[in-house]
Amino acid sequence: KASGFEARTTNGEGQAAMTLTDEELEQIREAFNLDAVVAAADAMWVLFCGVLVFMMQAGFAMLCAGSVRAKNVRNIMLKNLLDACVGA
After folding, report:
1. What is the dihedral of CA 73, 75, 77, 78, to 10 degrees?
2. Which of 87, 83, 85, 61 is nearest to 74 (CA)?
3. pLDDT (tens digit, 9 = 90+) per residue, 55-81?
């Protein structure tokens, strides 16, 4: 039973089409362990997005600190820190 996936290769004389069966595709998936690769990529993406969120929180803290008087900077930084702690 053919899965409809075609791989095209080029030899010196032209192009030849090859159709892989479902069994062959399953053997390729097992050989490369695609499920583990997808799970690792998903975990890396979630961690990367988490880092971006905390970097944005730090940038917002700097923005707030720059928009208040010097005597209130400590209070604003503490509020931003607590916001990050409660939000996480």
Report:
1. 160
2. 61
3. 999 999 999 999 999 999 999 999 999
In whole angstroms, what is the distance from residue 86 CA to residue 70 CA? 25
Q: List the Cα angle 41/45/49 in 5-degree steps.
A: 175
**Backbone region of residue 56 per phi and psi (left: phi > 0; alpha: psi in -120 to 50; beta: other values):** alpha
Residue at 71: amino acid letter: K
Rounded CA-CA distance 12/38 in Å is 36
Quote the pTM value.
0.56
User: Residue 7: beta bridge partners?
Assistant: 18
